[in-house]
Amino acid sequence: MESEKEVAQVREVSMVKPNYMLMSLQRILVLTVILAGVLVVVHYTPMPEEYFENCDRECHELDWPMICRVKLVIEVYKTLSKSCGSCTEKDGGDCPATCISADGRERGVLVANRALPSPTLHVCHNDILVVDVVHRAPAHALSIHWRGQPQKETPFMDGAPMLTQCPQPAYTTFQYKFRASAVGTHMYHAHSAADAADGLAGAFVVRQSARLDPIKALYDVDASEHTIYVSEWGHSMGPLAGVISRIPNAESLLINGKGKSSESPDAPQSSFNVEYGKRYRFRLAYGGGSKSCPIIFSIDHHVLEVVTLDGHQIEPQRVNSVELGRGERVDFIVDAKKVPGVYKIRVAAVKSCQDNLEGVANLVYEDKKQKVLHKDDDKVDAEVSRELTTVTSDRCESDNVVCLTEIHAATKLPVELTENLDKTIYVPFNYSTRQISAKRVESWGQTDGHRFTYPASPLLTQGGDVGANQFCTKEPGQGDECVHVKHIPLGATVELVMFDQGGESDHIFHLHGYSFHVVGMRELHRSFDSETIKKMNEEGTLFNKNLVDPVEKDTIVVPKFGVVALRFKADNPGFWMMRDERSSHWTRGLDFILKVGEQSDFVQAPPDFPKCGSYVGPEYFLI
Ligand SMILES: *[C@@H]1O[C@H](CO)[C@@H](O)[C@H](O)[C@H]1NC(C)=O
How many domains, the chain? Predict the structure, then answer.
């Protein structure tokens, strides 16, 4: 009996006391192994690209257009962040992709996806872009302009604040959705020039099927890595800096976000690789910066065969250098046929705007099997000694300088734009600075006597909220501040004659929604009044117009005391800004708006389109 009891007890004891310690250790071990396995698998699984649905591909005319999803996270960031280490110093190693080296100096940057310049977008013609702008930079009201895209189906996606949309407040997301309908090398940038100069700008390339490209025979390679974005770099402009009359000098020119300064001569430079014997199509966009001086671009010992301007094809021009104003783009072809090596790509600001403002990059011949070189390969192109410039000046008379008026478009001026135009609009503008005391300079900017100001609500999407008293009068003003709108009937053929009365410097204007044919351009060397200009234009003594094959552009450099005549057919209804590109922030008074068509002609924004106007205007009291 007793022994039975004992046995039972022993059994009980052994059942009651399993080894808990060991069991939990085993479980922990098993769980750890599983967890480690999961981590290994996750670690080695390639993550889908977070920001881009990559539309950078070979374009084919029979392919369906793609939907290109882009997420642009806008932040205040800095150059030389931790990840850079000492990569901008001598023997500091390569800079990691996450490092913004700029010109090797520390500075705040306004970035999209922590990149400088903003990531280049490559799409095919007719792709649909869906761009989420996630705005995380306090104190900036943003809108992004897609330069070069007419936005005919979606005028409310043009990114002009208070015209086509309410500027986006910080900590919100705005979705741009539009069709890339205009082929060519373009740009996208913050509407505010200060924000663009602080980094929020990049290249935007719309390619077409090689079979549809009329100049395909001229090149072998059109690759995304041969896109060049040049920008001015210097002191941050900040929202208030734009208000001062004297803009500080820029300090360097960056090529694809890289350059050097005297302080850091070892900062990395951009390189563009080529193989001997191939012809490369390069795409160049100049985004400007705080000062936005015109720049001269060249590649040592290489000829640039310029084939497009602002995305429009021209009769090819073989030149040694190209001079561009802010916002202009060119495509050129480089025949890589020099003694393989490294050649300098140079940009320099025009001296009359700022001396000693330069940037460099490298053209690198990849070390593939070297071809036998003919001794005179180097000489062939030395015969070319010409410059192409979009900036008209006295130099145009020289045989070695090809100016805009001497360049021929690849296509003829449409017949309806050759004569009997429906409307001619004369637009005098005057930007002048005056020394008002030994220390102070004051500036005035007016177009037609009106100082441009933005309306309180976006004209296209909330036009009804804008009081009639905010608009400028039709007659020339007396320096009044108002919303300057010029009305054009839908479908009219238009000639816009713009002329500079101030004579301070060149001026650059960019038209949204259209590109125009530059039928006339000239320096007048002094101020003329509207009556005289009108008379001269009607008599045909103002210019020797090119009504056969003038170049087509969307950005124009109006020479100092100069006049230009721009023609287009007003077939894109909406509110389109003629933007003064030298403005360092939102405006300095020279901008104006073209209202094409009537409210009923406008493509309506979707009903849930974000709106301005929950704030009570300053003239109301809540109590
Ligand atoms: C341009 O503006 C300045 C400053 O307001 C003025 O002194 C000058 O007379 C103007 N020039 C013309 C041609 O209107």
Answer: 2
Same-domain pairing of 356 and 491:
no
CA of 518 to the centre of ligand 1 (A): 27
pTM above 0.90, yes or no: no
Minimum mean pLDDT among 182-186, 310-314, 566-570, 586-590: which range? 586-590
Report which ligand 1 atom has the smallest distance to the Cα of 502: 1
Whose C-alpha lies nearest to ligand 1, atom 8? 502
Average pLDDT over residues 184-212: 96
570: in domain = yes
Residue pLDDT, tens place only, 66-114: 999 999 999 999 999 998 988 888 888 888 988 999 999 999 999 999 9
With respect to residue 130, please indicate whether it lies within any of the assigned structural domains: yes
Spatial distance between the Cα atoms of 396 and 298, rounded to a whole number of angstroms:
19
* Better-predicted residue by pLDDT, 598 or 49: 598
- Give residue 1's pLDDT: 47
Residue 460 region by backbone torsions, left for phi larger than 0, else alpha for psi between -120 and 50, else beta: alpha
Q: Where does 424-472 have alpha helices with state H?
A: 459-462
DSSP class per residue in 551-593: -EESEEEEPTTEEEEEEEE--S-EEEEEEETT-SSS-SS--EE
The domain that holds 589 is classified in CATH as 2.60.40.420
Average pLDDT across the chain, whole number: 90
Residues 273 and 365 in one domain: yes
Domain that holds residue 484: 415-601
**Residues 291 and 327 reside in one and the same domain:** yes
Q: Is 527 in the pocket of ligand 1 (CB under 6 A)?
A: yes
Ligand 1 centroid to Cα of residue 429, in Å, is 9
- In sequence order, what are the beta bridge partners of 576? 594
Do 425 and 354 sit in the same domain of this protein?
A: no
Instruction: Say what the pLDDT of residue 48 is.
Output: 47
Secondary structure of residue 363 in the 3-state scheme = strand
Answer yes or no: do 117 and 265 share one domain: yes
Count the residues in the chain: 623
β-strand pairing of 184-190 with 144-147: antiparallel
Task: Tell which of 373, 390, 407 closes a domain.
Answer: 390
pLDDT, mean of residues 48-77: 85
- Pinpoint the alpha helices (H) of 151-220: 193-197
Q: Based on the domain organization, do 382 and 419 belong to the same domain?
A: no
Name the residue with the closest Cα to ligand 1, atom 5.
444
246 and 134 in one domain?
yes
Answer yes or no: do 384 and 460 share one domain. Answer: no
Cα gap 230→297, rounded to integer Å: 9
d(C-alpha 401, C-alpha 394), whole Å: 10
Is residue 501 lining ligand 1, measured as CB closer than 6 Å?
yes
As a whole number of angstroms, the distance between CA 30 and CA 23 comes to 11
